[in-house]
Amino acid sequence: MSAQNSAGIQTLLDAERDASKIVQKAREYRTKRVREARDEAKKEIEAYKAQKEAEFKKFEAEHTQGNKAAQDEADAEAEARIREIKESGSKNREQVIKDLLHAVFTPVPEAMAAH
Amino acid sequence: MSQIHALSDDQVGQELRKMTAFIRQEAEEKAREIEIKANEEFAIEKSKLVRQETDAIDSAYAKKFKQAQMSQQITRSTVANKTRLKVLGARQELLDDIFEAASAQLGEATSSQDRYKDILKGLILEGFYAMNEPELVLRARKADYDVVRQASEAASAEYKEKTEKDVKATIDEENPVAEGSAGGVIIVGGNGKIDIDNTFEARLNLLKDSALPAMRKALFGENPNRKFFD
Q1: Do B28 and A22 touch (CB under 8 A)?
Q2: pTM higher than 0.80 for the full model?
Q3: What percent of chain B is predicted at pLDDT more than 90?
Q4: How far apart are alpha carbons B209 and B29 in whole angstroms?
Q5: Does the keyword Transport feature in the UniProt annotation (chain B) (predicted)?
Q6: What is the pLDDT of residues A25-42, one digit of tens each?
Q7: Contact indicator for B105, A91 with CB cutoff of 8 Å
Q8: What residues are paired with B171 via a beta bridge?
């Protein structure tokens, strides 16, 4: 009888022990999931950051290129216009000098009195 | 067997089995609850962390992009400015060159005495009309005193003719115009306080401002951007 009792009690104790193992396993699972949340989040975040960085680098590269193109174009345009100026200069220089000297040597008495 | 045992061995066994099963079932239900909760927490925590950080990343990159764009605009604007300055510099060089050349040729007026006298008369007359005073002082190069005196007499005569007023212009021999000047005359009035500098250098200097619009038009053509012409 008491042997039966203690066998029964033992069975129940074993059952309790197994039960607590089951619950314990679940608890460990929960802890693991918390850690996994952080790790996966970190991975996703880094991937996102890398993608953004790549976009940015592409943007910068495009614009550096664009800037250089603009600079070259501006230089070429400046060259062309300076050439034009020099041409016009040599063509019209003499006449302009003549006109200036004419103005220096031609007093206009009446006009001065007007102011 | 004692009467106290209400259950048979079999029944005890059965009860035990029921109880162990129950204990097990309870444990598994609890474990399931814990697992479900764990997965929920996982999802919430992960999405919270991801959203927090991606928001921060987004705003940091928005700033970066904006700065990059601004710096690009600044560069473009600087380039445009530099170009404009280069072109303006070339224009200015040309203008300066022309004025220097003109300056070097100022001496040609004095090559003919008659022409010079005529010019001087006109310059002096300009002074007469502008000052509108009965007594004025003239300053000129030492070498020009004679011709200036003659021109001054002719000018006074014309002045009297046109305005019916007398004007007496004397040469201030204490203060000649510098030797290096190409010629011309200075008319001083207002008790020595006002002077009209009609030397050739001074006249050319005035043209450096006043002649620019005409010069620019002659050299560089019309300005297509100009809107006001008064």
Answers
A1: yes
A2: no
A3: 69
A4: 100
A5: yes
A6: 999 999 999 999 999 999
A7: no
A8: B138
